[in-house]
Amino acid sequence: MRFDEAYSGNVFIGSHSNFEESKAVLYGMPMDWTVSYRPGSRFGPTRIREVSIGLEEYSPYLDREMADLNYFDAGDIPLPFGNAQKSLDLIEEYVDKLLAEEKFPLGMGGEHLVSWPVMKAVAKKYEDLAIIHFDAHTDLREHYEGEPLSHSTPIRKIAEHIGPKNVYSFGIRSGMKEEFEWAKEVGMHISKFEVLEPLKEVLPKLAGRPVYVTIDIDVLDPAHAPGTGTVDAGGITSKELLASIHAIANSGVNVVGADLVEVAPIYDTSEMTANTASKIIREMMLGFVK
């Protein structure tokens, strides 16, 4: 699949048909080969697109609408079922090409491991990259039961790749004791439980820097997002997450890419999670793509 081909399936609201004229490209990464609990997030991108039809194209938060932004929904990257390393290589190659075309990459997962090759590709293009990470889980393991390719490892991988002090995690409420100890030892920023207020304290320090934003939907409390593979009680509200996205959008931070991962429609009987994710994608697109 070429990333500039028109997608024949359901597209996210407001998608333009011309790749060349688009500033941003929305793409799916339908992989859940390494999950440690419940699979199903490979179906997330498709369902997020489908429910987006229920959204308005206007954001009253940002006073901007989808018509103000040329973006292209490229569909999902074809990934080989069960082959984690090959899938990650294909994702990195795909994003490399998008960045070479000066497009803003906005990805939908899939499990959180898919963010690792994207962040690696973005780090090749942008020096002094910083990561803003929203999640219930630290994702700082070196391996899960001996397997280094796991959805519990992507933040550890990017932290070691660009330096732990360039990674800022928010909403964290679950992880091994050793993960928290490692983060403290190496100077990585972890905000336990809270998101908005600590984020506001960090953003001035990142002004002018290129920043990649990765959101695991399970940063939300299961009451707001039950449709995910690894639910964890005690999370934030969807209102808080939206306010955090708007805080980033209105800061001096130069967002150069983003993703939202871990939506698993099979557990989302009310479609609350998919609809929330769809709105978050809209706000990220309108807020981050200038």
From TrEMBL:
Single GO term (MF): agmatinase activity
Protein name (database record): Agmatinase
Function in brief: Catalyzes the formation of putrescine from agmatine.
InterPro entries in UniProt: Agmatinase-rel, Ureohydrolase, Ureohydrolase_dom_sf, Ureohydrolase_Mn_BS
Gene name of this polypeptide: speB
Lineage per the UniProt record: Bacteria, Bacillati, Bacillota, Bacilli, Bacillales
Known pathway: Amine and polyamine biosynthesis; putrescine biosynthesis via agmatine pathway; putrescine from agmatine: step 1/1
Binding residues for Mn(2+): 112, 135, 137, 139, 216, 218
A Pfam cross-reference name: Arginase
Catalytic activity: agmatine + H2O = urea + putrescine
